[in-house]
UniProtKB/TrEMBL annotation:
Annotated InterPro entries: PC4_C (IPR003173), ssDNA-bd_transcriptional_reg (IPR009044)
Species of the source: Oedothorax gibbosus
Coiled coil regions in record: none
Taxon lineage: Eukaryota, Metazoa, Ecdysozoa, Arthropoda, Chelicerata
GO biological process: regulation of DNA-templated transcription
Pfam family membership, one: PC4
Segment forming the signal sequence: none
GO MF annotations in UniProt: DNA binding
Protein name: Transcriptional coactivator p15 (PC4) C-terminal domain-containing protein
Source organism superkingdom: Eukaryota
Length: 310
């Protein structure tokens, strides 16, 4: 009796899936190109990758690129000017000093080529070997998924990474004071309001930094404040331009550590049930409302996690 023949290309169940059951945080751009948002240890990654179909399963190939949340947001912001990429096939862009984008013509078809760069120890730059090319239809699909992909990024950052880091931080805290005898709903409300305050304070600080960084008046050192976009820009416009970038730049580990210190006496309320009931997208919307109610004239760039008084 012949021995069974081994499958020459076994399906990796960790990354493979069927087209009729695409997992959460996976977005199909067409022609077997997917955007996948995942977390790995302490970071969130956005993969734009070509897949192949084997035995009814979709499996990732090496053709693709991996982005950080901030680089993804830079790409998302640039998609609104995609017409420039197709108007000039020689157009080249570098996003966040790590993603190289070029518009190219391949067999009479316009494509966008994405390739990562990394900085070597001698500060020279080198291309990563893997690239991904997407056509105009796939680029349009990517643009249509932009808000959903960003939402997935925030879900991974806070519902997954923050939760994990916060539980770890709480486990290291030994309270010397007696725990407060308070109602469970009151304790949970304190936890949620603390998260909102910490996020608001950090978002405000980062947006301020981004305003200064991107202000032509500050760059040219203009004496008249009327020439400074960082002063003239409305709060609505600040949120529109910089809110997502600010959230992407938040250090989740530092946020979790500070949160655990502020809420040490209430750590018994920080349970899996509490966290599963928590909706971070609602919290981020509340942060936006807090930001809009803020008076620009009282801004300082000194606000940070440590500056909040509870």
């Amino acid at each position: 009796m012949n021995a069974p023949v081994a499958d020459p290309s076994p399906v990796d169940s960790r990354n493979a899936f069927k087209l009729d059951s695409i997992p959460d945080h996976h977005y199909h751009l067409g022609n077997h190109v997917f955007v996948v948002v995942s977390e790995f240890f302490d970071s969130v990654k956005i993969h734009i990758r070509k897949y192949i179909q084997e035995m009814d399963y979709m499996k990732p190939t090496k053709d693709g690129t991996t982005l950080s949340p901030l680089t993804w947001q830079e790409l998302a912001d640039s998609m609104c000017i995609k017409s420039f990429y197709y108007a000039n096939r020689r157009r080249v862009s570098l996003l966040n000093d790590e993603l190289f984008i070029v518009a190219a013509r391949n067999q009479e078809k316009e494509e966008i080529v994405l390739q990562k760069l990394f900085v070597k120890k001698d500060l020279s730059r080198q291309f990563m070997p893997n690239v991904i090319s997407i056509d105009e239809l796939q680029f349009n699909t990517l643009e249509s998924y932009e808000k959903e992909i960003t939402k997935s990024v925030f879900t991974k950052m806070f519902q997954v990474l923050f939760r994990r880091k916060a539980f770890t931080a709480f486990s290291k805290i030994k309270c010397q004071q007696p725990l407060p005898t308070t109602d469970c709903s009151v304790g949970k409300k304190f936890l949620t309001s603390t998260i909102e305050d910490l996020l608001y304070c950090e978002v405000k600080k980062i947006i301020f930094e981004l305003l200064i960084e991107n202000c032509s008046g500050c760059e040219e050192n203009l004496a008249n404040q009327l020439g400074h976009e960082c002063v003239d820009m409305s709060l609505d416009m600040q949120l529109s331009r910089y809110f997502n970038k600010a959230v992407c730049k938040i250090d989740v580990k530092t946020l979790a550590n500070t949160f655990s210190v502020k809420c040490a006496l209430y750590k018994q309320f920080f349970t899996n049930n509490y966290f599963y009931e928590l909706n971070f997208h609602d919290i981020l919307n509340n942060v936006k409302e807090l930001y809009l109610s803020n008076d620009l004239n009282v801004w300082t760039n000194s606000s940070s996690f440590e500056d909040i008084d509870f």
